Structure formats: C-alpha cells, structure tokens
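Q: What would this chain look like folded?
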Amino acid sequence: MSDTVLMNIEDGIAWLTLNRPAKLNALNYETIDCLLELLDEIEVEHAIRVVVLTGSGRAFSAGGDIPEFSRSVSRGAARAMRDFVRRGQALTARLEAFPKPVIAAVNGPAYGGGCEITEAVHLAVASERAVFAKPEIILGMPPTFGGTQRLPRLAGRKRALELLLTGDAFSAERALELGLVNQVVPHDALRPAVKSLAERIMRHSPLATRSIVAAVTRGLNMTIGEGLQAEGEQFAALVPTADLAEGLGAWMERRRPVWQGR
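A: My prediction, written as structure tokens:
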C-alpha cells in the first residue's frame, strides 16, 4: 500500500491522512488509488464505525496534482478523462455513497479537489486555519471531481456560481455559512472536535447509521416521492434486525441499548 495515505485505527475510527505535505497533499493518481483501496478495506471491517479524512502538514489538500494532470491533458481528451476525471469522480462518488459516516477534518487549505472531497463527504469540521477555493477556472477549466454539481446543491446556485466563476478563496466561516462544513473550531481543537462528533455517532446502531446515510445520499438525487420510497425501503430492511428490536426494547425498559450492528 502506498504511503501517500496513512491509516490509523483508534476506538472504532479509521483516521486517513493524506501524506504528501511537501506538495500540500495534492491528489496525484497514486493517492486517489490508495484512498479507494483503503475505503474498500474499511467497508468490510465491522470494528470500524466512522472514517475521518485529514491532511498532514499545513494543508488538507491543494487539489489535483497539476504537473501529473498536465501530462494526461497533453495526450488528449480521452486520456485526461480516463486518468484524471473518472478517477477523481470515482473517489468523490465513493466518499458520498460510503455506507459508514465519513468526516473531513479540514486542517488547512482545501482547494480544488480538496474542496470537492469536503463537498462529497457526509460531515466536515474545519480548523479556523482552513481556507477553501474553487480555482479551476484560473487554469481555464471547470472543476472535474463533482464541484459543479455538489457545491450548488450545498450552497445554492448563485452562491456556488460566484465561487466557481471567480476562483476566489473563502474562509472557514464562509464555508460554514454556505453549508460546506458543520463546525469551525480552533486549530488545536480540531482532532478532539472530530473525535467527539464520531463518538456521538457511534452511540447509535450501526445499521441505523448506515440506513440514514443511504437514504439521504440516494434521496438528494430523487424527487420527494422517490426519496420517501427510498426512506421506507431503508426502514423495512431494518424491521427484522436485532438492532431495531434492541432499540425498541431498551427504550421501553429505560436502559442503554447494546447494538449488534450486523
């Protein structure tokens, strides 16, 4: 496994750290492939309940690795689509639809692809040092990892277009206003805040957690009627499970539930 992403498992949380600090954790092809492989491993490891994604050094991620991407562009559209666009979109789609909650711990600049990862994950906590930007227009191109689609859904069309069309950087507080992050904390409090959020999630049934993530992720791209059907399907799948029986029993008996999560 590549050392461009480090993984540490602690108390049910998988901490994934982008590890190219000298390059501001730019997302080269090796890093994206490594992230996808690690997510495959984490998905089937029942002891892992939450995933946290952060960056080493002073940045979260400066975005795509431009020199590597440029080499793909020089070989034509088909090569650039295969190497860069499809790879990046596969990563953000995987994060968005991942069955376990994924939290971005945004420790510093999150530009381009780094911002798109923040858009795609389920939850995000930002350090007060975090800075965001959609700078692809400066290169003469649109975002390619989903930024033209997810940011308008989070922030609204006009606010998203202002960021996409100007390429201007914006603060962590502005990201909070736009709905891109859930919380902004002092830099030294970032890890404790993320750990606290993960622990608050892990109090509850793993099956219910997965069900909620699936219903929300699917429903965002559906009509309200289709989304309600998806919500009902998720509930129906939980009816025969031990977790739902335990949750109801614990509530009626006024005790803490013990989740099986299988």
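The beta strands are 5-10, 13-18, 50-55, 102-106, 110-111, 123-127, 131-133, 170-171, 183-185.
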